[in-house]
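Hi Y.,

Following your request, here is the sequence exactly as I used it, all 137 residues.
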Amino acid sequence: TTAVVIGFALMALVFLEAVVSTQSTGDQRGLTHQLTGLLVFALAAPIGVILGILITKVLDSTALDITMFVINALATGTFIYITFLEILGPEFQTRHINQLYKTTAVVIGFALMALVFLERAHGTRISFYPQLRASEL
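Below is the corresponding structure, written out as C-alpha cells. Let me know if you'd prefer a different format.
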C-alpha cells in the first residue's frame, strides 16, 4: 500500500542522512555499532509517523490536546537544546571568525524566523518585493 511505500521511503531517507552524518563526523566506532545506530535512527521516523497517526485516531479531543502539548514541548526543548548547546555553543568558543559577525548572523536568523512566525500567525504575507498586478505582467 501507499503507507508502506512512504514508510520505506522515509526510512531510506533517514538512513542516508545518518550515513552522511556518520561519515562527516568521522565516527571511529566499530561497523556493527554504527550499523545498529543507523538502523535504530532509520526506524525511528516511520515509528514516529505511525504513533502520530494512532494518537490522532484513538484519543478524544482533550487527551489529544494534552498529548500534542507534551509532544510539542519535548520537540521544542530538544530543538532549543541542540541549537544553543550543541551548535551555537561550540561555534562561539572558536575564534576563527570575528564574534561580532557570528552574533550578527544569529540575530538576523532569529529576526527572519520571527518574520515567518508573524506572517503565519497573522495570515499576512510579508514580501521584500513589490506586488505586481496582473496587468503589469
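The two ends are 44 Å apart (CA to CA).

Thanks again,
Q.
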